[in-house]
Amino acid sequence: MWALSLLVGGTDMYWIPIMAWLGMPPLLLIAGIILAVIPRTRRTGAGILIAVGAGVLIVGGVCVALLTTY
Description:
Blueprint: H1 2-9, H2 15-37, H3 42-69
Helix pairs in contact: 2-3
């Protein structure tokens, strides 16, 4: 993470939270799919995928609500 921030923003450490937020959803999707395929961890993978889907719906609803107020 620190090396990526040096490549993107020099010595500025403000890039770390941005990269963490942008990198987390794809990692959760990949981890959820992998866990959903394995029989012993199928419920955990399904829970991760449902949580990601619910998060997208909630954030989308908040975005629409904020846009309609302006």
